[in-house]
Amino acid sequence: MLEFQILLPAILNGLATGAVYALVALGLTLIYGVLHIVNFAHGSLLMLALYGVYFLYTLLGIDPYLALPIVVPAMFALGYALQRAVIATASHGREENILLVTLGLSIIIDNFALYLWSADTRTINPSYAFSTVDFGGAFIAVPKVVSFVGALVVTGLLWLLIQRTDLGKAIRALARERQGAQLVGIDVDHIYAMSFGIGIACVGAAACLLLPSYYAHPGVGENFVVIAFTVVVLGGMGSFAGALVGGFVIGLTESLGGLFLGENLGKIGVFVIFIAILLFRPTGLFGQRA
Amino acid sequence: MSRPYRSITRRSILAGAGGAAITAIAAPAILRAQAKSVKVGIIHPVTGGVSYSGTQSRAGALMAVEDINGKGGIKSLGGAQIEALLSDAQSKVDVAVSEIEKYNEAGVSAIVGGYASFLCLATTQAAAKHDIPYVVDVGTDDRIIAAGLTNTFRFSPGYGVFVKTAVPALKDINAAAGSPAKTAVIVHEDSAFGTGTAGLLSKELPGIGIEVLDVIKHPTPTLDFNNIVLTIKAKNPDIIIPANYYNEYVILARTMLQQKLRPKAIYSVLGGGASQYKFVKEFPEAAQFIMDCNHWFNPKNPAALDLKKRIEAKDLFYTYEVFLNYNAVMLLAEALERAASTDRAKITAALASSTWSGHFMPYGPTKFENGQNTGARGVNLQVQDNDIKVILPTEFANAKAVFPMPT
User: Fold this and answer.
1) Is B250 in CB contact (< 8 Å) with chain A?
2) Taking the model in full, what pTM does it have?
3) Do residues B129 and B236 share a domain?
């Protein structure tokens, strides 16, 4: 059972899955860190992005990876608009309202998708879907390798954006101290919406990287949202490094859990980690105390 | 301050649109409301884990309702139209049961549908409480029939029949090639259908000289089959036998191809994807030469091919869910015609004495014993060159088995 030939691919697959989890969680953690919004609509927006990628491929013949420059800005715009027009407006600045608004949004988006596109599972079959890369006897699907690299690149770019640009500086200032940021002339509403937009843009990137090895379905967001929350809690709410490490840990746990305990019990490890973190280290691995 | 009229704001429009979308999904939609009609409940899991099959099932049932109503309705009831009350079981047992209670209150004369075994088990019992005649469309778990409910009728075969067909057929296919297959691994989903099928198969296979090396179960949905495929690879069986629903079947087959796992045969009993044109069309490479013992229409019956054309014209795939539901509704319509009544007991009696031969399945006229259509059978299929061919029994076959799979 513990043969290297099985263990190695399981580990590599876990890392590849983990990178995508990290990317989804990154958006979630950014939105939480800056806006203190627990975004329940995150999974639904990922689902919308997956459909976007799907239709770009089937209707216009645009490869999912080449769709990145279309889907990412589109999701950014959607996120920006959602924050300014819906979430900020409907929540009146109260956190419990925001919670309900994002939850409501997710229900509306999911059911709207079901109405528009039915419950059909939609997959694409690009020429490289079945190609694999041989890592010392472990066959890893090309889309998984691409999504691993892609997720790391996007994370790196996001880090640069936050650390090296004026926008990043403003976002960090706002996350620290809202009033102070306002005093030095930062347009708070604009930066809030920018942060939400960037968080949703991450989901757009994740969708482009995911679809070649995955599928679009109105309920697909649910599969990710719980995992993404676990990753964020594990890494520490608001921490980028935490989201990345958390993503890998959860991806590995899921993959190895599935291997050793069977697919039925495989996910148990993920939730054991979730509960243990809440019990023993509620701020997460890289989280700062409030 | 009271406001006599609500001003139209962006928010109220959003709230209204969201509300309307949800109501449309939650409430049973009444398709045709006319003075003289027979209310028939049509229940399927249109959302949730098995939603693809549920949606396909509903399409088939509605096609039959359309045909019956278009040809003048139920003549013995003065041309009464069938009024289809659509329900979504959401792939959840509790929801399915409460939908049956709603049907009872709405006064339906009969129910058709269910699709998944775990849903059928619950819905047939709920319907039995109110003596509502229930035609099970697919639900292959034999406990649905073994419960002895007098209201329950299954037109299609249960998995007991499939195993009895599939195991000797596999023996024949293997023997014809000089018996190269000696070992198998079974992969099944963990609800009633997969567990039951896997249990029966692991008992029967040693009898034809095939050793079962492992039985691997997984939940629905399962998103990643890499671990399962790696485990199978380590066991290196001659035959892989999947018993799961569509999404999982497809991911499993794709992963096997990626991990370069090429057994002598992929042989399913009621394989969720093996007999689906959708799978064959979208992943021809992964589907090629997969064998399955499943529900299928008689490929030599023109009515079956005619319906296939009409379904495909609607941009749908012609799946077993579609044609089984079509026939299930037609079976009920024929019983209604003879019962000449909307009374539940009279319809139940008419179904029990049914000798209907107007269907296009490879079954012969219907004959119900304890609710099971005894003539119902499955056939053996194989994906060959982007089409699904019948390979056994020979009287319906339109191709010969390719075994072992060329590598």
Assistant:
1) yes
2) 0.75
3) no
